[in-house]
């Protein structure tokens, strides 16, 4: 991974992936040059990234940001870097509700904090674990399903070969660029994605960017 501005890192494999995809896929050959130097970026640590994903569930992006800022302000220091598992476990329920969190999201955040505080997620071992093993650890946490785990693999761990077949944006991108706008099934999307290996995350990211240039997580 390489630094790209304060607090950001980008994957070292990106240029190799772009060459590979452009050589093997006609759509990628056109899309990649259109999007210029933009590339996947990761920021923040594992706990805060997953906590933000829980806070943002089923609400708009602006609303999620507002709730997150109020939530982070509850902790000493008042920013995301100060949101730690032990602090979430000790936080007052009324204060969490006052920040705009539902009772269910509070339960989810505490379960997440408990997994990190108790060591049942093996963060230090993730670099040597395969994608499915990490997904298995993450979906054991309340409020985290497979889609969230796959987004975490792509945007935080920057794994190169994730194909999130439950993602509506991916399916829409495949429909638009490969099937002339016709709906696509998961099996059809998987067949398209198989040609992108071992850089399916990169191709997915370019399809997302083709629909919305502000893709982030």
Structure description:
The chain is mainly α and 217 residues long. The protein folds into two domains: 2-42 and 161-211, Endonuclease Iii, domain 2; 46-155, Endonuclease III, domain 1 (Orthogonal Bundle), CATH 1.10.340.30. Helix content is 56%, strand content 2%. It has twelve helices and two strands, in the order E-E-H-H-H-H-H-H-H-H-H-H-H-H. Helix 3 (46-55) packs antiparallel against helix 7 and helix 8 (131-139) crosses helix 9. The model has no long low-confidence stretch (mean pLDDT 91). InterPro entries: Alkylbase_DNA_Glycosylase/TA (IPR051912), DNA_glycosylase (IPR011257), HhH-GPD_domain (IPR003265). Belongs to the alkylbase DNA glycosidase AlkA family. Its EC number is 3.2.2.21.
Average pLDDT, all residues: 91
Helical proportion? 55-70%
How far apart lie the N and C ends? 17 Å
CATH superfamily of the largest domain: Hypothetical protein, domain 2
Strand order of the largest sheet: 1-2
Radius of gyration from CA coordinates = 18 Å
* Helix-and-strand structural type: mainly alpha
Question: Which sequence of SSEs, written as H and E, runs from N to C?
Answer: EEHHHHHHHHHHHH
The CATH architecture assignment of the largest domain turns out to be: Orthogonal Bundle
Number of folding domains?
A: 2
Q: Note the total helix count.
A: 12
**Unreliable spans:** none
CATH fold descriptor of the largest domain: Endonuclease III, domain 1
Largest sheet: 2 strands, antiparallel
